[in-house]
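ligand=NAP
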Amino acid sequence: MGETTHSMAPPVLRVGLIGNGTVGAAFASALEASHDRLSQRLGVRVRLTQAAVRTPDRHRDALPGIRVHDDAAALAADTSVDIVVEASGDPGAAGWLRRAIARGAAAVSANKLAIASDRPLLDALARRHPLLHCEGAVAGALPIVRALRDSLDGEEIHDLRGVLNGTTTYILTRLERGDRFADALAAAREAGFAEGDPASDLSGQDAAAKLAILATLAWRRAVTLADVPTRGIDAHIVDVVRVAGAHGCRVRLVAEAWEDDGLQLRVEPKILEAGDPLARAEEVINVVAVQSALAGPLTWYGAGAGGRHTASALLGDVLTAARALVGTHTGRIAA
Ligand SMILES: NC(=O)c1ccc[n+]([C@@H]2O[C@H](COP(=O)([O-])OP(=O)(O)OC[C@H]3O[C@@H](n4cnc5c(N)ncnc54)[C@H](OP(=O)(O)O)[C@@H]3O)[C@@H](O)[C@H]2O)c1
């Protein structure tokens, strides 16, 4: 840990942030705004001390008092950083996360594609490694990673289904209202949902990466992005949406995993009946439904993307990581 615990002031945990874009910047300002509240809750202070981005000069004004540079690998290896928060989207980020954990720091990441492509990180997730957290990588603010990792840890999961990609849901919602595919995609871009290059959303890769992470946690063995048979959406989906709508149904890009003589996985557009909980996914809303042996059917519903929503997940992960690093300060309970 960065500062000595012998002084009267609460000790400090130092956070290094990789990426200061939509998610990283929202996290940095949420951490700054909630510093005092979090210090009280934790008994330690959590401070952002450095940030790595591609173009440091563009970010220095927004991060006063913080060392800003362009070397993410050095940040991950820097022993003065206790918690690495990664929100870069760089496909090579897994190496940084592994490096941080290997030296005893905690790693918090929103980068689903990096995690879902890296078997050692997936193995660590399957084993519930206390220093690896990725709530923000799946379904934004929905607490589905922690639910599978902790709350349902004693359970046998039968099946898991989700609408996990906001861009395709946004486009499908617009098609239901009569938009052409190109206009719906343009509207998704304008609303800030679709990337400049929305290929990973439209191809289903984004949803498949999220499914790989959830299946890894639910079935406790590494499921990689490459293990998920995936089909996305293109302009041909317009006719399916119209026919489904005429029968009171909706089309959504559904990610599913279930046990049937081994673990089955799939991402594809599906026609959903109106009563299906997944049919409630609209615009940027994600839905996840899990069926397990004891709990029965459970459903999560809420904002699956956006800087502030994902920052909420990252903050929760930082607190969990902080407690793992400093131990619990729960005190005694009178008998
Ligand atoms: N946006 C969402 O709603 C959302 C929700 C959940 C999860 N996520 C995930 O969160 C991650 C970040 O998404 P975002 O939307 O915040 O992306 P973004 O707005 O494009 O920001 C990416 C940031 O990472 C920096 N960066 C990229 N490559 C880097 C590298 N090699 N070294 C150092 N810094 C690097 C960029 O630096 P420059 O600014 O200098 O270019 C930028 O600050 C992605 O993995 C994404 O899948 C996003």
